Amino acid sequence: MSASSFLDALRSEGLTVVQVGDWRHHNRNGKGPWGPVHGVMIHHTATSGGKRTVELCRNGHPDLPGPLCHGVITKDGHVHLVGYGRANHAGLGDDDVLRAVIAERTLPHDNEANTDGNRCFYGFECENLGDGEDPWPAVQLEAVEKAAAAVCRHHGWTERSVIGHKEWQPGKVDPRGFTMASMRARVHDRLK
Ligand SMILES: [Zn+2]
C-alpha cells in the first residue's frame, strides 16, 4: 500500500500516529527490493525512553542504517512513523516460515536464515527492554494489536499474517513479554 494508505489505515484503527521527519521517503530501497509484502513483524527494541527509541529506529547505527522499522510503538501507545519502504528490521529468515505466512498456515519452527525478510514484512518496533521484566502497558499492547490489524485489514489478511521476529529468524528472542499466539488472538478478535 502507499505511505498515505498506511497512515490512513493506522488512524482508521483508532491509533494516535506521530509522523517523524520525511518518513514517507526514508527507506533502504536503494539496497534491495521492497515488496511484494506478505505480513507484519513485531519486535522489541531492547531500549528504554520513547524519544531515544524513536530516534534510534529512524537513524539506525553505524552497523545497521535506519530505518529499522516502519512504526515505533512507544509505551504510551503512540505509533511513530519513521520510514516507509524497505527497512532494516527482519534480516534473513526461514523460507518455510514465509510460505506458511503467505498461505496463512500454522508456522513451522524457524531453522534457516535464507530469505530476505526486509522485502516482505511491515515492521513495528516496540519500546521494551526485552528482559522479561520490563512491563508492557495495556495501552501499548492495544496499539500493537491495532497496528497489526490495520495492515491485515487493508490487505485482507488474517491474524496468521502477523509474526514475531523470533518466529522468523533463528536466534532472535523478540518480542519478549507476551506471546505471539495471544497477540494473534487479539488481532483475530479485532478483525471480526
Ligand atoms: Zn527484532
TrEMBL record:
Q: Which residues form the N-acetylmuramoyl-L-alanine amidase domain?
A: 23-176
GO BP: peptidoglycan catabolic process
State the SMART domains in the record. Answer: Ami_2 (SM00644)
InterPro entries xrefs: Amidase/PGRP_sf, Amidase_domain
One GO MF term: N-acetylmuramoyl-L-alanine amidase activity
Q: What is this protein called?
A: N-acetylmuramoyl-L-alanine amidase
